[in-house]
Fold these 4 entries.
Entry 1:
Amino acid sequence: MSHNPGILLTLAGNFALMSLFAMGGANAAFPEMYRLAVDVMHWMTDRQFADLYAIAQVTPGRTSSS
């Protein structure tokens, strides 16, 4: 697998903008993350995104919002 610095810069720039403008934390930016990763850039499928989100939710060290 080759590394493309352009993709990493695009990813970092988009997530930086989302973090600046999202009110309510990461869950508020989630729909835009999905749109960017799945619909616009086609970096992953809908199923892959859902699986990665589920893994992130059960990862130890995450604080509960409820």
Note: The chain has a mean pLDDT of 83.
Entry 2:
Amino acid sequence: MNLGIENRKQLIWLAALFGTALLLVAYEFWPTSSSAPVSATTASSGPAKPGMRRTASGKLVPVAETRLDPTLDLTQLSKSEDIKYAGNGRNIFVAGSVAIIETPKGNGTAPREEDAGIRQPPPVPPPPPINLKFFGFANQPGETKKVFLSQGEDIFIAAEGDIVDRRYRVLHISATAVDVEDVLNNHRQSLPLTQG
């Protein structure tokens, strides 16, 4: 049987992997001579002492261990026995006990002396007027009625329901005026027909 060089290399690798796996399985299940369990302290014993740890530079420093003692500390218990509850006169364990409530000073409607210097916020200014001008119609038979509106040098052609200048909605077109709403300020205004 004539095997190529690549096939031989693959067989050698396969044999090596199989041998390693066989050794690992034998090591895992082979009985040991010591039957005593290994304690955690002997397994982790090394150069570090208990209560010590190594820093990044390799120096041993003591570890501050918290006290985890489950026994009852009688000195702490005797200190807490001397504390007397003073309370405010209300017993939460008795039904109908009345709490002591401080009576309010005044009826709450009259301004207090310290509030006299507080100023009220200024009133909300009215919305700015709509600065469009209505100057004509664009009527074609069979089409919806459209109007010409101008703002400075800009001219807009709009029908009812259209938005002009990304801000004004044309609500209603009549023969003498156009009703327009400023959608940003929720303000309506009627623009009369101007002669120009």
Note: Strands lie at 52-54, 60-62, 133-138, 146-151, 154-159, 163-164, 168-173, 177-182, 187-192.
Entry 3:
Amino acid sequence: MTQNAKILAGMMEQAYLEIIPTKTIVERLIHLPRHSYVAITCSPAHGVGPTLDMVDELRALPDERQLKLVPHVAARVVRDKGHLREILARLDEARVQSVFVPGGDAAEPAGDYDCALDLLRDIADTGHRFKYVGVAAHPEGHPLVDAAELLRLLMEKQKYSNYLVTQMCFDPGLLIGWLRSIRKAGITLPAWLGLPGVADIPKLIALSLRIGVGQSVKVLKKQKGLVRKMITARPYQPDDLLAGLQPHLDDALLDIPGFHLFSFNDVERTERWRVETLKNLTNA
């Protein structure tokens, strides 16, 4: 195995999966190895409650099924400092060591927090016990915030966090170029790259356009055999994206520790792809 392949294999081995808290998702996580990293999203419609309940439910699993949990606490669903203290107390009781703080997609804030930066400041003021605090980054921009403001906010959020996760992107050149630009601007947070997992292509394109991932969707549409895949209902797999990123993973300046896989709750197919990719790298 080449050094580059070893690096990629290590990243695939420690990649973590993002899930949406639903009534049936826990039983499907049986497909994941013990101590896998699992990020639990926070719904703009239902708030942080289902996220916290999912943390408690997963913590109650037998030791052989324990996972490393990374709950999302979206700023726009937290009402006030009192509510924040309640959330942090529950996460502390559940022995959560890592939390991810996005702004959130709620159309209107539930209370005092309009953006992630405000919530991060108050989390820091509580003297939290988290080992890791992550923030969101947007290689293709944000539908409601211009590029200069996004960079300014990321620079400020860097004071209260120790890693970032990129929004889903299908264009490896765009992603690496963006990462080089923020490094030059002074962003030093380790960057976990957000990769789409295995998903049905029409659903994936529709979701991508909704969250503002427009430019790189053009790359997705140009990928060889995409039309045929859509006709035959074959799912998307991020193999081409991974191949485009692989030559850059050993660049120390970029500081890429690993991948964040957006599963869209298709845990079985995404985990099967991860394991098969890891096997192919190991046997190469």
Note: The first helix runs from residue 3 to 13.
Entry 4:
Amino acid sequence: MERKTHWAWKLFGSGGVPRELLHVHFEQEYATYVRDFPVLVGWAYVQCPIAAVRRDLAENLYEEETGGIIAGRPHPELFLEYPRGLGMDLARFERIELGPAARAFRATLDLHTRQRGWAQATAVTTIFLEGTDHERGELDPDSPKRPAPPLEEHPLVKHYNLPLDALALTKAHRKVEGSHRAAAWRIVLDHVPATDHAGVLAAMEATLAAWLAYRDEVASVCGLSR
């Protein structure tokens, strides 16, 4: 997870993407996994034979699908508040065409969530997709945790004048991610059998490679270069 970084993030975070191309990031992110994230977690849930794990996954799924615990609205809907707040045409999000690398990334997610068992599905969704390069801080109190700067310093607010009330998903994540991170690591460390460890690591490597290629593609379409 410490390798889940991309060279273009600093440009996205500093206003380096032309405003007229920013929609590319949101559309591709939404269609590759944000829109269907509850379904991806659901695949982990339905394949898992361990009741304690299913309960943690069910809580995650319920929050993502309904927002019923924290957010009050489904998280995919809250994601759309970003482009809405930036004045984008939300009709675009009903007819997204994924780029080749984005399609490959989504195919990788589908493979490891639907066809390779609950352990890989759980790791790919709750560790890789929900996690960051600061995951060590979730396990080690001496390691830095995921940064949480003031909402006024959010890149979309600071560089693109996004209204603060459009950060509903960011606020929800900050409230719920602590318990989600703890549950994700509890599942993987306490319940994944040793016989599945190699498969989980291979799934994470494949997902990381596909994600990096996908982010390269998005950066290129947004006019960014190293």
Note: Residues 41 and 208 are 18 Å apart (CA to CA).
